[in-house]
Amino acid sequence: MKDPHVFVIVGAGLAGAKAAQTLRETGFGGEIVLLGEEPERPYERPALSKGLLLGTAERESVFVHEPGWYAAHDVDLRTGVHVSAVDRAARQAELGDGQRIGYDALLLATGATPRGLDVPGADLDGVLSLRTLPDSDRIAAALADGGHLVVVGAGWIGLEVAAAARQHGATVTVVEHSELPLLRVLGPGIARVFADMHRDHGVTFRFGATVRAFRGESRVSAVVLDDGTELPADAVVVGVGVQPNVALAEQAGLTVDNGIVVDQALRSSDPRIYAAGDIANAYHPVYGTHLRVEHWATALHSGPAAARSMLGAEVAYDRLPYFYTDQYDLGMEYTGYAPSGGYDTVVVRGDLAKREFIAFWIAGGRVMAGMNVNIWDVTPQIETLIRSSKPVDLARLADSGIALEDVTPVDTQPLASGRSNRS
To answer: Tell me, what's the pLDDT at 113?
Structure first.
């Protein structure tokens, strides 16, 4: 007899698609309904600011599954569908057309939306953001002709777009309100590495600046800064962060605080509703606090974890945050969590000038996060240092002649992650 249970997943991105895959691989025989607002089938986002902009990745490579996978695995994928409400009492998801879909368990994986700038001219043609495949297509088209590109925001997305634009021959100016790129994430010492690298490749920075307006007739032609400076612009990419898409959770009365608050099993304040990906503010047992992580690896791993939790398995989602970037000849992996103000010092082993090093963010002698730059196959060792939760000898940590395994006792089994496993 067919399993009568219905699991509904709202959000057809990487987290939602991997959750559906895990449900089937784990043997769930009930109905799976996967609902997405975008017209495309689920895809991964890293290539949008990397390979697709550089022209080194094929468009088809970004999709999570082949076109026929969903039908072959009896997953009811519905794209271009808006979910307008969740009726918790009736256990139903209501679609924009009024249709209602009952559920036994519901996973919210609705992602995030880029923040815009509330300034005159923000709606001009050529003022772009990057979150979706069409966004990437529009930016790639703008870069194809070179010209002047202004990037607003020197975060990871902004810097990756700037790198791609320079490799296309565009003149690039990055506007950033802080005095260095990635300052809140990396601190001044490591942030300067990225500033110097981009300057070496011809990028101009305008630090300590904010945008007052965009100028142009129907299309942007200039960016006006707060000091009155006008920067010529054939296109603008705004990368000033994202906000989690929590309107549906708020409407349903779930606990929301910087995302949907979930426990380490990714279960919300309603035991039949789960959250994964960018919107999940999940309790992390390693750090002893709730974390909302906006990176690819979180979607990749939290979707499957939520699926197992929906099936009743005991889940303690404790994957360490992980992300990576590729800019020019620099490749980097970052593991862990060390927010601004959450660490005492940064220890470096290697050579900052050569951009071949590992940086460690330290709090009370404990490694909170590590970032390897142009040094590979060290993610498991960095994870072990973080998971040990023990103070380490900082001099030994900085000494490249001492193996990372010998810096502190290896008494936990590191998770298998890192660059070699990324999609």
So the answer is: 97
